[in-house]
Amino acid sequence: MGLGSLVAMSEEVASQGREPAGVEHELSPSIVLPADARLRPWVARDHEGFDEAAFPRGDFVDPATLVTVLAVKVTDQPWHPPVLVNAPSTTFTRVQGPWAPAIVARLAPLGAYKLLGPALSEISGSSYVALEDIVGAEARRLGEQVQSAPTWDERRRLLNDFLLDRATRGPQPSPEVTSAWHLLVRSGGRSTITSVARQVGWSHKHLITRFKQQVGVTPQMAARLVRLSTVWRHLDHEQSWGRIAAESGYADQAHLIREFRHFTGTTPAALTT
Fold first, then answer.
1. How confident is the model at residue 4, as a pLDDT?
2. I need a surface site. Which of 59, 89, 152, 190 has the fewest CB within 10 A?
3. Sign of CA dihedral 199, 214, 231, 193
4. How far apart are the C-alpha atoms of 234 and 245, rounded to whole Å?
């Protein structure tokens, strides 16, 4: 079951005879399931349910992301563990089927640390790790309960309860890392790490160590991905790539395209033609 950030990118060439990844801006869930209001600080958006009809016909490409995805299968399928977690990644990943219907939660940066603790930095860059390997029997029980639940609403309740329990017992992100994250977001990824470290009162080295532990990537990588997120917001507007590059903080159009290809496996133009 490949879910990741559920933004499907195109790849120009199919490999080993498989169908190429489709050019889809984002996979559409079968149903949107409200996250508990108490989870709002920790989730990127509402939960989503995916049945078999929601998945692509072939492989797709997961772009690099700061979001951590928690996917709980709603049917018993032998090819993957019942609960999977996909932590922040620094490059794109080709995701292969087969797919399994699932309910999906997207954890915001810092929210994933509440769920996973220090293990977040250890699994970052790994594609779809069994949650049971991180939190133990709790994950197995969640998988069993969700698979036994007859409705999406009941699955939503179980997922909300699990996340709320983990958030209550999980570690709290440090005020300095929280401030550093917000500084990067407010600047659109343009703030230098030296400037951010000075503003939060830490050394450059200490900020990098603690930030990676609690966000899953280094502050410099987070800044690059935050900057890329500003490009996504421009894709549906009729603007020149040079102007988008300038408004998003890139040196020039070539710089934007290099970064976009590194993180997504394709070019911005491929998504708009």
1. 34
2. 190
3. positive
4. 10
Name the domain count of the chain. Answer: 2
Contact 5, 29 (CB under 8 A): no
Cβ pair 81, 104 in contact under 8 A:
no
Distances (CA, A) of 116 to 98, 166, 184, 221, 239: 26, 8, 23, 20, 40
Range of the domain at 49: 31-169
Note the pLDDT of residue 13: 22
- Under 8 Å between Cβ of 177 and 210: yes
Tokens of 184: 């990067």
Side chain identity at residue 267, one-letter code: T
pLDDT, tens only, 211-260: 999 999 999 999 999 999 988 888 777 788 899 999 999 999 999 999 99
Which comes out higher in pLDDT, residue 269 or 196? 196
List Cβ neighbours of 17 (8 Å cut-off, separation of 6 or more).
none
Determine whether 220 is exposed, middle or buried from the number of CB atoms within 10 Å of its CB (0-12, 13-18, 19+). Answer: middle
Return d(Cα 67, Cα 60) in angstroms, integer: 18
Question: Is 8 part of any domain?
Answer: no
12-34: pLDDT as tens digits: 222 223 233 333 345 678 899 99
Could you tell me if residue 13 is inside a domain? no
pLDDT tens for residues 134-180? 999 999 999 999 999 999 999 999 999 999 999 999 999 999 999 99
* DSSP string of 247-268, one letter each residue: HHT-SSHHHHHHHHHHHHSS-G
More confident residue, 148 or 127: 148
As a dihedral over the C-alpha atoms of residue 222, residue 72, residue 3, residue 22, rounded to 10 degrees, the angle is -170
- DSSP string for 176-244: HHHHHHHHHHHTTT-S-HHHHHHHHT--HHHHHHHHHHHHSS-HHHHHHHHHHHHHHTTTTS---HHHH
